[in-house]
TrEMBL record:
Keywords: Cell membrane, Membrane, Transmembrane, Transmembrane helix, Transport. Its main location: membrane. The keyword Ribosomal protein does not apply. The chain crosses the membrane at residues 40-59, 66-88, 94-113. It is found in: Cell membrane. GO terms for cellular component: plasma membrane. Belongs to the drug/metabolite transporter (DMT) superfamily. Small multidrug resistance (SMR) (TC 2.A.7.1) family. Gdx/SugE subfamily. The keyword Transport applies. This is Guanidinium exporter. One of its GO terms (molecular function) is transmembrane transporter activity. It is a multi-pass membrane protein. Gene3D superfamilies: 1.10.3730.20.
């Protein structure tokens, strides 16, 4: 177990942040199926949530907190909106798509101008 933790703490913080964001998309999208009648799915959503926070924590050990949190929430927002459109039939209006593009631009900007040297 110690070796696994050592490897995780040496992970590239941007990779950890990307994994955290993708896990956030999973648990946020999974909320539609959570409930006492679906304990297995509820457990998976909870595990994805904890893992997402864990990888976010790893990223914040080497990246500025504002950058890490902004990128994490941005990945989650864009991912959840995309899942909503593709899987749940939510509207894909032009203004919603423009807003998604603006969030992606913000994520890229935070990455490019984070001042992080890793």
């Amino acid at each position: 177990m110690t070796e696994a933790l050592r490897l995780l703490t040496q992970m590239n913080p941007w990779l950890a942040l990307a994994i955290a964001g993708l896990l956030e998309v999973g648990w946020a999208s999974g909320f539609k199926f959570v409930g006492p009648q679906r304990p297995g799915i509820s457990l998976l959503v909870g595990i994805a949530m904890l893992a997402s926070f864990g990888f976010l924590w790893l990223a914040t050990q080497k990246l500025p907190i504002g950058t890490a949190y902004g990128v994490w929430t941005g990945i989650g927002a864009v991912g959840a909106a995309t899942v909503g459109i593709l899987a749940y039939g939510e509207p894909a209006t032009a203004i919603r798509l423009v807003c998604i593009v603006l969030i992606v631009a913000g994520i890229v900007g935070l990455k490019l101008f984070s001042g992080a040297t890793v």
